[in-house]
Design goal:
By secondary structure, this protein is mainly alpha-helical. It has helices at residues 5-34, 61-65, 79-99, 103-125, 130-147, 151-172, 181-192, 195-218, 228-240, 242-251. The structure holds zinc ion (ZN).
């Protein structure tokens, strides 16, 4: 297996970029559908509606060669596309590095594509498609199955994180956290699988949102910052640092 590791890293980077592009596209697709607009199966430019050819759709490479503009109308495609592709590619490589060629690596990568659609969607439109959040739960259970997680720990962590977010949502009437955040917390907490990790998750995601939200608060911008992306990124960060954190908590 060790001989295949370099190949595994390269494949992870390529698939990460392709699926990062796919996730971005799916987020648009779901959004257009919810707005009742038709969205064909072929990719089109969101500005001039020109149908894109395969060579306009190569992750990262197309964006760089076209300098982030549509080939036909020169409208800006936006940095979110390339960030999505590079971001997921980087995370896939990190997962491959940390978990190696193992079932839990593949489960986490698959779930991350789902989370990526949610992340892009929440970042763009400040909402979380509910169905997708429930779809993440089986992946989380499979992940714990392969890791041989402790069922008591999993239930404790899940009850704690989901409970906190549900109460925040319930009592703040969506002013503090969005209505979907507590549903997202179910799969995230199962993935984390331990109460200690859940506490780190709470700290990391709130810290991230606070940092990102500070400029808006200073400008007295009332726009709510979407919380989903921070929950997702914090979860991935914790899972990648799993061994380190475990050692830390066992010592203390
Ligand atoms: Zn165009």
């Amino acid at each position: 297996m060790e001989d295949y590791l370099p190949l595994f890293y390269i494949a992870s980077a390529i698939f990460g970029a392709i699926l990062g592009s796919f996730a971005c596209c799916q987020a648009w697709r779901i959004h257009e559908k919810q707005k009742g607009r038709k969205f064909g199966s072929r990719s089109i430019c969101m500005s001039c509606k020109h149908q894109l050819r395969w060579y306009d759709n190569i992750p990262v490479i197309s964006w760089v060669t076209l300098r982030g503009k549509c080939r036909y109308c020169k409208a800006k495609i936006g940095v979110s596309e390339i960030l999505s592709e590079l971001g997921l590619a980087a995370l896939f490589v990190a997962i491959a590095y940390v978990f190696g060629i193992a079932p839990e690596a593949f489960v986490l990568m698959a779930a991350l594509v789902l989370y990526w659609v949610l992340l892009v969607y929440d970042a763009k439109w400040g909402e979380l498609p509910v169905v997708l959040m429930f779809c993440a739960i089986p992946f989380a259970i499979a992940f714990q199955f392969f890791l041989k997680g402790n069922i008591f720990q999993i239930l404790l962590g899940t009850g704690f994180l989901t409970g906190i977010y549900y109460l925040l949502y319930y009592f703040s009437k969506e002013k503090l956290v969005g209505g979907g955040d507590w549903i997202l917390c179910i799969s995230i907490a199962i993935f984390l699988g331990r109460i200690e990790f859940v506490i780190v998750e709470l700290f990391l995601s709130n810290f991230g949102a606070l940092l990102a939200g500070a400029p808006q608060v200073l400008k007295k911008d009332k726009k709510q910052i979407p919380f989903g992306p921070f929950l997702i990124i914090a979860m991935v960060a914790i899972l990648l640092m799993r061994d380190f954190l475990l050692k830390f908590f066992i010592i203390y």
